[in-house]
Amino acid sequence: MKGRMIGVDVGGTFTDVFVLNEADGSASVAKVPTTRPDQSGGFLEGISRQVTDMSEISVVVHGTTAGTNALLERKGATTGVICTQGLRDVLEMRRRDRPRTWGLRGDFEPVVDRRNRLEVPERTLADGSIRTPVDLDAVRAAARQLQDQGCEAVAILFANAYANSANEAAAVAAVREVWMNQHVSASSEILPEIREFERFSTTALNAYLQPEVSGYLHRLEQALASGGFDGEFMIVQSNGGVMAVETACRLPIRTALSGPAAGVIAAGYIASSAGFDNVITGDMGGTSFDVSLISRGQSMLSPQTSIDFGMVVRTPMIEITTIGAGGGSIAWVDKGGLLNIGPESAGSDPGPVAYGLGNTRPTVTDANVVLGRIDPDNPIGGKLERLDVVAAREAIDWHVGQPLALDTLAAAEAILRVANSRMAGAIRLVSIERGFDPKNFAFMPFGGGGALHAGAMLKDVGIARAIVPRYPGVTSAMGCVIADMRQDFVQTINALVAALDEISLAEFMQDHTDQGMALLDAARTTFEARELSFELDMAYIGQTHTVAVPLSVQTENGRIVPPTCAEIEKAFDATYETTFGRLLKNGVRRILNLRSSVTGKRPKFDLKTLAPETTGRSEPKTSRNVHFGGTWHETKIFDRLELPVGTVIEGPAILEQPDTTVLVEPDLQARVDPFGNTIIEPLGGQS
After folding, report:
1. Does residue 260 have a cis peptide bond before it, meaning omega lies within 30 degrees of 0?
2. Check: CATH 3.30.1490 for 484-601?
3. What's the pLDDT tens digit per position in 40-69?
4. When comparing pLDDT for 524 and 571, which is higher?
5. Where are the alpha helices (DSSP H) in 431-501?
6. pTM of the model as a whole
7. Number of neighbouring beta carbons within 10 Å of residue 308
């Protein structure tokens, strides 16, 4: 019997809930303030607003920022490290980089204090041979010392463990015998990949997050179960796939960009369904503006990212550029008289000045309220009856207007111009600076505030049109429902192609496949299909940077048929020439890593079930004055969810709905497509 699928995305300001009734395809949404410090309160409140009987729920998928926030705010667990003698300071030395380009000093502190980084005798060489067996008595003594020093989690970081994990595996077994909980991470289990710092950093950060993330997820599990929920609970990964809670508790580092990734997945599906394969997404919440690029229907994946300076995570993630320009980002004037936006945010508590909860510094939302772009009588979120416009005006005038000698309206316009400029810069970063022409892309704004700035992005960046999804304020929550189940694996090969052991490569590929399929088999979700993907990180000898070479692999009776050396060389040449425009004569080809992914394709719902009828109310429900470009314009206000398919509305206009506000500026028009999306483009722009 089909039930309800629920996606929940916890952001810095709001917790968004998307509920899909699998029986009839209908959907409902909720948006509640995020609760602090325990985000589970808002999570459960959002679900309870839409579902009274949790036994009706078949699947709950969660996009979480618990791990992201713990890293950014340095609020993870007290963590210990047991490492090879001589490698105590790898986390601190990093790649000898600096927080600031110029100057001789840096102020970076690793998440593991030096007193909690202990060395033990052991040594594995790069070829996998063991020169010094691990001293297990020293390992046990180090584990006890770390517990005495208050460590809640521990990471085992041994040299060259990717080449031979025997020493590290023995140490892990010894530590788990004496450690007081399950929070033990090993580099050979988390990232069996060459490059010491990246492997050490990823594993240490995984340990740092384990108590926080696993505790949070277990609280949610228990609360759902106590309410009668007996379905499947899954977590969105940074790569855009989902995983079981058990996997997330063991590998919390894979949730580092969980929430933003869900939004990109939903945006890609919505855009491709509507006929747009090239999309730039802009997720504007209360705290940040997250930008990503989808080319030919494919999200850009990065093998590595830095959550903050020195906190390097080596795991596949959707490429997302984040700036502090959300609705709650605070506007301020520096000592040189320059207007700045963010990165500090008012968040959900106390929130913008207009919320009336104690903040006195103006935000981007306050500027939109003062200029009439947000209806003060219908704030999103459901907890406030009315926004305080007078307080917002006074804050803008005091903190921005007076220092810059501007009247209140001009100061509010200035706040939006600076915010829009920063957003446009982020879009250029993921498009123009990477060789993509924005004119060939549509812009998809979502999040609570994104659709207020769509027109500005079209003008500032030169994008042809914007596509606003049916429920932009809860797009990331919708992405949780849409996302496939995916598991990624990596193994260092470190061999010349000419000397490659094809059978050994096939064994690694088969092992990854078997592990991934086992995880899919353990899930209670139905999959429409299962897909395998393999890539090799390759380069010429002497090169540091690699290219990702996709492999076309065959199977026979469920077993991987290894690619031949000639096939690998041909695939590398094609990829390298496409990337750099030439091949290196007499260059010697080298394989560094094997990357594998196993994906279970979850059923997708038909987006047309969300669309309005072809007939309905297309007349404005009211009008009000809205400030554009230095003057007031009488602006028609529409109930967006009642607009029938095919409706075309000329700006200036505002389309309102419970989770967001869509702004159509005077020289633009909006039309409703067959999926209920709103296409914003220049007047007369419909092809």
Report:
1. no
2. yes
3. 888 888 888 888 888 889 889 998 877 877
4. 571
5. 454-461, 475-482
6. 0.84
7. 13
